[in-house]
Amino acid sequence: MSQSKIYVGNLSYNTTEDGLRDYFSQYGTIEEIKLIIDFNTGRSKGFGFITYGSAQDCENALAANGVELDGRKLKVNIARDDNRRAGGGAGGPGGNGGGFRRSNNRSFSRDDRGNRDRE
To answer: What pLDDT sits at residue 85?
Structure first.
């Protein structure tokens, strides 16, 4: 395994980067902790990423999966490669990203359904 970054999910909104460092440093040397914060509220989104100095330290940290921290059972996995989410977008200049757009010029009245001449 060459990956040295883990995903840590199901975090309490009260968990801090310092709290993560205190707990996860038992598994190895931590190079970086990134707790994901909601831009609008300034609160944690309940997940983050920890980068270790070695792949072995990262693998050791997987043992924290299911461990309770700040009242929540952690979900710990190897972090996915950021390149998986690249691409896509709004479809280029002037595009709206696709989807279904209903024309406003249509009439959806029941008109004469059910009033056909029957003999």
So the answer is: 52
The CATH number of the domain holding residue 18 is 3.30.70.330
Q: Would you state the pLDDT for residue 1?
A: 46
User: What are the structure tokens assigned to 8, written together?
Assistant: 């840590």
Q: Which domain holds residue 60?
A: 5-78
- Residues 6+ positions from 31 with CB-CB distance below 8 Å: 4, 51, 52, 53
Instruction: Tell me whether residue 66 is in a domain.
Output: yes
110 vs 76, residue with greater confidence: 76
- Report yes or no: 83 and 7 within 8 Å, Cβ to Cβ: no
Rounded to 5 degrees, what angle do the CA atoms 84, 54, 67 make? Answer: 80
